[in-house]
Target: Peptidyl-tRNA hydrolase
Amino acid sequence: MAKIKLIIGLGNPDPEYQETRHNIGFIALDYMAKKNEAEFEYNKNLNSFVAKSKIDKTSVVLAKPQTYVNKSGESAAKLLKFYKIKPKDIIVVHDDLDIDFGNFKLSLGKGSGGHKGVESIHKAIKTKDIYRLKIGISTKSLKTARKQSDKKRDEFVRNFVLSKFSKNETETLKKLLKEAYERLVNIL
Model:
C-alpha cells in the first residue's frame, strides 16, 4: 500500500471565523486543495472536511477538523486510525503568534509553543513527533500588547487571533501560501 500523508489544517468551523488569523490552517488547506483540484467533503465519523489528492506523486489527505481549534486532537486521532497513518506522516498547519506575519516555519518534534490546538493533537495521538507548518500572524500591535498586564494581554490576543486579515495582509498572505506550499512539497 502506498504511503499516505495527512495534512491537518487548524481552524474554527463557524462562518464568522472563516477569514480570521486563527483559521490560517483552514485557509492554507483550501489553497492546497484548489491547487490540486481536490474538493472537501464532510465526513461525519471523522468530524472533518476531507479532501484526497496527490501532491508531487504523494497521496495526501487534507483534513479540516470541525471541533474548534482547541479540540483538534479529537479529529486528529480519528483521522490517524481511519487512514492507518503513523504520526510521523502528519503535517499540522496552524497560526503562530511568535512568528511575524508574512513568514512561516517548518518544524518536527517540537512542543506546542502554547498553541492549544497543537497541545490537543499531541495529547490525543500521544506524541510530539509530528511535522508542523507554523504560519506567522504576529504584528507590531500584538508585540506591544504582549507587554501589557496579563488580563489586557490575554483579551487583546484573543481578539487579535479572531480578527480578519486586512486587504494589504491578504495580498501578502497569497504570496506566503504559495511559498509555504512549495516548501511543504519538499518534505512529502
